[in-house]
Amino acid sequence: MLYGNESISAYTRSNITIWMAMAFQAGAINIGGFMACHRFVSHVTGFATFFGLELVQSDWTRALGMLFVPLFFLLGAMVSAQFVDIQLRSRRKPRYFLVFAILSLILFSVVIGGHNQLFGEFGQALEQSGDYLLLALLCLVCGMQNALVTTVSRSVIRTTHLTGITTDLGIGLARVLNRGKLARATDEDVHANLMRIGIIFFFGLGSVLGGLLFAQLGYLGFLLPAIISGALCSGMVYFQKIRVPK
User: Fold this and answer.
1) Domains in the chain: boundaries
2) I need a labelling partner for 160 at 20 to 30 A (CA). Which of 79, 93, 104, 142 fits?
3) According to the CATH classification, is domain 13-242 in 3.30.2420?
């Protein structure tokens, strides 16, 4: 795991732990963003829908906000790709630890900014410019995380939203149920389906436990995903920088 130029795409116990932790973190971030300002932060389709709605209602400021925020999801994916995908394609060591370090830093910044009222009152409707800043930062995190997992799982797994992975699960289940009719072995489909079920479960678990935490702590609830990212960063530093095979 995580040695040299290796990807974290193998179905090992350590890699599965990383994927599930990221799914749990994504669920917590998503519920936190929704409870903070009534918008799902990892749902780019939803932003496009709200953009159309605001245009119909001639609210140009909100329409531009709904158009602007998802660009940070795109930016996050590009940043992650620079540190992981491009490194792997260049046959160099992927910098997983840098991605998780940035994620943790952004999330701790959200905690500090929220505690100091930078984003307005927790739970209010989407009204102030600070709300858009919060959404932009959370979208940046989700974009980075999703690109990382998409790259290392070879597009089998995504952790920040469930529409695509549920579709993939349906296809995978159909393949397994029809294994007798297929020429190729379906062992890979079985492994992928188990991973997808795990992602869905841990995303839901993160949403539930995160929701309970945000209801009590407000913006301080973002400490949960910040600590998870920090722990993952520490693990990456250990395996990539300290415990390097001779």
Assistant:
1) 13-242
2) 93
3) no
